[in-house]
Amino acid sequence: MDKTKPNPMTIIFSLFPALIHSVLRGFESEYGNRAGLNHTQVKTLLYIYNKGPSPMSGICHHVNLEKGSMTSVVDTLLVNGLVQRNRDGTDRRKVLVNLTDIGILTAKQCGDDVSRYIGKRLSILSEEDIAQFWDSLTTLENIVRQLQESPYEYE
């Protein structure tokens, strides 16, 4: 491996979590948890809010939890009246998780709070740094989309 370039594994497994932590550090202490939800429940609501009704496997993949753990997250959200489970109209074997009206309002409130907080955290940066930050995120988003859309091949 080229010694002048950082190890990609180091970046993926340390930089990305550090970025998320540094951007969201202090969020709960400033905003509290007005909805009474934990971090994973908020991520789950926001994923469904942005993507629409989703199968458990899709939610697990994007929230980064095993299916057994995600089942208890969804069960709690179900008991709180924030989500419901429905059979997929095109594939009766598939169960989709979607937001209730209360879930939509809660997800919107949480999303607004997170967006407002991220804006506040980034305000300590120069305009140039903020522009580079957003450009970098756009680049990463495009790369991830390409990787997700390409077939995985074993060599």
Main features:
155 residues, mainly alpha, 7 helices, 3 strands
Explain this structure.
The chain has a three-stranded antiparallel sheet with strand order 1-3-2. Helices cover 65% and strands 8% of the residues. α3 (39-51) packs across α6 (101-122). The model has no long low-confidence stretch (mean pLDDT 86). It has a domain at 25-115: Orthogonal Bundle (Arc Repressor Mutant, subunit A). The longest helix has 23 residues, at 127-149. β2 (83-87) and β3 form a beta hairpin. It has helices spanning 8-24, 27-31, 39-51, 56-63, 67-79, 101-122, 127-149, and strands at residues 54-55, 83-87, 95-99. It is mainly alpha-helical. The protein is globular and about 50 Å long. The relative contact order is 0.11. The protein is built from seven helices and three strands, in the order αααβααββαα.
Radius of gyration based on Cα positions: 18 Å
**Shape type:** globular
The major β-sheet equals: 3 strands, antiparallel
Helix and strand element order: HHHEHHEEHH
Distance between the termini: 19 Å
The average pLDDT is 86
Which second-level CATH architecture of the domain at 25-115 applies? Answer: Orthogonal Bundle
Structural class: mainly alpha
CATH class of the domain at 25-115: Mainly Alpha
Continuous helix count: 7
- Main sheet: strand order: 1-3-2
CATH superfamily descriptor of the domain at 25-115: Winged helix-like DNA-binding domain superfamily/Winged helix DNA-binding domain
Strand coverage percent = 5-15%
